[in-house]
Amino acid sequence: MQFTELGLRAEILRAIAEEGYTEPTPIQAKAIPAVLQGRDLMAAAQTGTGKTAGFTLPILQLLSTKPAAARGKPRVLVLTPTRELAAQVEESVRTYGHYLPLKTALVFGGVGIGPQIKALKGGVDILVATPGRLLDHVGQRTVDLSGIEILVLDEADRMLDMGFIHDIRKVLALVPKQKQTLLFSATFSDEIRGLANGLLRDPQLVEVAPRNATADLVSQRVYPVDKAKKRELLIKLIDDHHWHQVLVFTRTKHGANTLAEKLNKADISAAAIHGNKSQGARTRALADFKSMKLNVLVATDIAARGLDIDQLPHVVNFELPNVPEDYVHRIGRTGRAGASGHAVSLVCIDEHSLLRDIERLLKKPIEKVLLPGFEPDPSIRPEPIENGKRSGQRSGQRSGKQGGQRQGNAPKPSTPQRQGKPPQRGGPARGNAAQHHSGSRHR
Ligand code: AMP
Q1: Rounded CA gap, 188 and 43, in Å?
Q2: E strand or H helix at 195, and its extent?
Q3: Domain 218-368 in CATH 3.40.50.300
Q4: 147 CB under 6 A from ligand 1?
Q5: Given the CA of residue 19, which atom of ligand 1 is nearest to it?
Q6: Is 21 in the pocket of ligand 1 (CB under 6 A)?
Q7: Higher pLDDT, 221 or 313
Q8: pLDDT for the residue numbered 186
Q9: Domain 3-211+405-438 belongs to what topology?
Q10: Ligand 1: which atom is nearest the Cα of residue 52?
C-alpha cells in the first residue's frame, strides 16, 4: 500500500514525501482509514511502530477539511505521559502539517508557563500536553477545552502507570462528550479496558505486533560481570567495538549521573537524561546524542520512554530493570525500522533472579559471554538490590497467571510497584511522575 491510496490531501502527502516515507506502516494502514471515517480507536502500538503519524495524519486531514466549530479554541488535544513524548508528537504534527495553516501548541511542566500562555492566547488548533501542566492552564483559565473535537490519549498505559488517572479523569470532564477519541497503549490491560469502556464509542480495535516484543533483528547478549567491574567493562566494549551511539540504562538517576561522569573522564562523551534534569538539559542531551556529538546517553527507564531515535545501534543494560517488561521496552530502542541492533546486559550476581525473570518473559535464554579479565569472582555473594523493590517485584511476577498472560501480548509494566507509591529510590515511573507533579503544583 502507498500513502497516496489513503485519501490524504496533497499538502499532507507532500510533507510525508519530504520525510522520505512512501508506504504506511501496519499501524498507519489500519488506523488512518478508521480515523478518517470518524471512528473512535483503541490501538495497541508502541513507540517505533509509526503510531504518531498513525493518528497525526488523519487528524490533520480532518481538521483541514472540517471548519472549526469555535474560533481560537483547541480542536484537538493529545495527552502524553512525558515531556519528551509531548515534544516529539508536537514536532511530528508540525512536520506533517507543514503545508497546512494549522496552529499547534506544546504544554508540559518543568519549564516556564509564560510562553505557553502566550502561545495559547494566539489561538491553537492542535494542543499537545502532559496532564499536570494542562490542568494548571485550565486552573488559570489560559486554555478552554470546550472546543475539543478529537482527543488522543497517547501511551495511555504509561499515563496510568505514572499515576495520571485522576488528572486524565479531570481532563475528560472538561472536554465535550461528543468527540472522537483515539487511545494508544502498549497493551490492552484490564485497567486500560476500564478506561476505554467509559470513553470510547464502538471503537475500531487496531493491534500490531510490537516490533520490540521479540525484536528478531536485535541480538541480545549478557556479560556476567562483578558489579565493581561493570564500568570498566562498558568502557572496554565501547572502545573495542568503536560504538558511537549507545543508549545505556541505569536503574537510578544517581547511577545515571555517576556513570555519565565516569565515561566522560574516560574520554567517552556522555550525558545523563532523567527526570531530575531540567527540560533544557534533556532536550540538549537528546539533540547532541541524535547528532552524534555525544557517544553515550545514560538514561533511566522513564526518561527513555518515547525517545524517538532512529536506528539506534546499541543498547546497554548497565543494570537490569526491576520489571522484566522494561527489558523489552529497553531493547526495543534498537533494531528499529528494519535495522539490526545489539542489546547488551551487564549482569552481576545480585541480578541473577532478575535475569531469570526476563528470560522467562522472553521464553528463551539470552546468550552469555564471559570476557577474559571480567569473569565474575565466585566468592562474591549476592546482595539485595538497593532500592528494596526486588522481593516484592519477584513475588509479583511469580504469583498467578498475570505474567504469563502478558507474555504473548505486548509487554505491560503494571505491577503495583510501578504505580507511584513510596518508598522509592529512582523507580522508573515514579521519579518522573513525582517530579512532574511537584513541578506543576509549585508554580
Ligand atoms: P513512532 O512510533 O510514531 O514513534 O514512529 C517511529 C519512527 O518511525 C519515527 O522516526 C517516524 O518518523 C518513523 N516513521 C513514521 N512513519 C513511517 C513510515 N511510514 N515509514 C517509515 N518510517 C516512518
Answers
A1: 8
A2: helix 190-199
A3: yes
A4: no
A5: 12
A6: yes
A7: 221
A8: 82
A9: Rossmann fold (3.40.50)
A10: 3
Cell output for 294 = 555525544
Q: How far is CA 271 from CA 179, 236, 266, 383, in A?
A: 42, 18, 13, 29
pLDDT of residue 274: 81
Q: pLDDT category, 387, cuts 50, 70, 90? A: low
Does the pLDDT value for residue 352 go beyond 50? Answer: yes
Residue 17 cell numbers, joined:
514525501
Q: Which of 69, 70, 79, 123 is nearest to 101 (CA)?
A: 123
Ligand 1 midpoint to CA 48 (Å): 6
Please tell me the pTM assigned to this model.
0.59
Q: Hey, which of 4, 12, 52 would you mutate to test ligand 1's pocket, going by the most ligand atoms within 8 Å of its Cβ?
A: 52
Domain ranges of the chain: 3-211+405-438, 218-368
The three grid cell numbers given for residue 343, joined into one nine-digit string: 542489546
Higher pLDDT, 436 or 264: 264
Distance CA 132, CA 182 (A): 20
Q: Do domains 3-211+405-438 and 218-368 have the same CATH topology?
A: yes
Total residues belonging to the chain: 443
